[in-house]
From TrEMBL:
InterPro entries in the cross-refs: ANTAR, CheY-like_superfamily, GAF, GAF-like_dom_sf, GAF_ANTAR, WH-like_DNA-bd_sf
Matching Pfam families: ANTAR (PF03861), GAF_2 (PF13185)
Parts of the chain that traverse the membrane: none
The protein's name: GAF domain-containing protein
PROSITE patterns from the UniProt entry: ANTAR (PS50921)
Residues of the ANTAR domain: 180-241
The entry's keywords: Kinase, Transcription, Transcription regulation, Transferase
SUPFAM superfamilies: CheY-like (SSF52172), GAF domain-like (SSF55781)
Molecular function per GO: kinase activity; RNA binding
Presence of the UniProt keyword Oxidoreductase in the record: no
SMART domains: ANTAR
Length: 249
């Protein structure tokens, strides 16, 4: 799959086409990380004053982390918030939060003192964070899209609306990619279950033929032997089916 930058030509960056490109690429994604990285990369193109972009996610257990970012310094600044339990990324990511949080001048910001000091020390003057609201299975996660600007008051009104649109894309991407991941996992689990059932069925058939016992008795024999040898039932069944000629000799 091509990157957002590869797909986007220079003369479309100020138009609606970047979002058309982003939507098309998101449909092709198969993992949550891949989808969110596309959104983060796109932010650097459609929000020119965003010098730094990251995504904050919150696990069902309440643990915050940064899965994607445009630069490693974003992880450092996000983690200041995670450690202190205070910051715009956390406020926006919480399901009971305001959904949109910003600071136009971090040098005088007093809501999140530890984060504000760290951000200014790294050369950032303002930030805006918008909530990610996944749906369906992906609703087990919550998060925020975070954009840092070098200058106080660094984002125009138009860029703020663009950030909200980006967070909507990120939310849809999270739901879509999570759905793909779950579907692939379910297919793998189903295939494993079918393979396991087939192996056990074959092993039962071998025991029934060799020992002249019923299907229930053959299964009970496999279970008992599995417990006695402390091996998984499917592994024992595989051994019986693959080496039954040796066992007969």
């Amino acid at each position: 799959m091509h990157s957002f930058e590869e797909e986007l030509t220079g003369n479309t960056r100020a138009s609606v086409e970047p979002f058309e490109t982003l939507t098309r690429l998101l449909v092709e994604t198969k993992t949550v990380a891949e989808a969110l990285q596309l959104v983060v990369d796109a932010a650097g193109h459609v929000v020119p004053n965003a010098a730094l972009v990251s995504v904050t996610l919150c696990t069902p257990g309440g643990e915050f982390y940064t899965p994607v970012r445009t630069d490693a310094v974003a992880v450092a600044l996000d983690e200041v918030q995670y450690r202190s339990g205070s910051g715009p990324c956390l406020d926006a990511a919480r399901t009971d939060g305001p959904g949109y949080v910003d600071s136009t001048d971090l040098a005088v910001e007093n809501r999140w003192p530890q984060f504000a000091v760290a951000a200014v020390q790294h050369g950032y003057g303002s930030i805006l964070s918008t909530e990610l609201v996944p749906s369906g299975e992906a609703g087990r996660l919550s998060g925020a899209l975070n954009l840092y600007s070098r200058s106080p008051g660094g984002f125009t009104e138009g860029e703020r609306y663009t950030a909200l649109l980006l967070s909507t894309h990120a939310s849809l991407a999270l739901a879509h990619a999570r759905g793909v991941e779950i579907a692939e996992l379910e297919r793998a689990q189903l295939q494993h279950a079918i393979s396991t059932r087939d192996l056990i069925g074959q092993a039962k058939g071998i025991l029934m033929q060799r020992q002249g016992i019923s299907a229930d008795e053959a299964f009970a024999t496999l279970q008992r032997t599995s417990q006695d040898l402390n091996v998984k039932l499917v592994d024992l069944a595989r051994t019986v089916t693959e080496r039954h000629s040796e066992l007969e000799s």
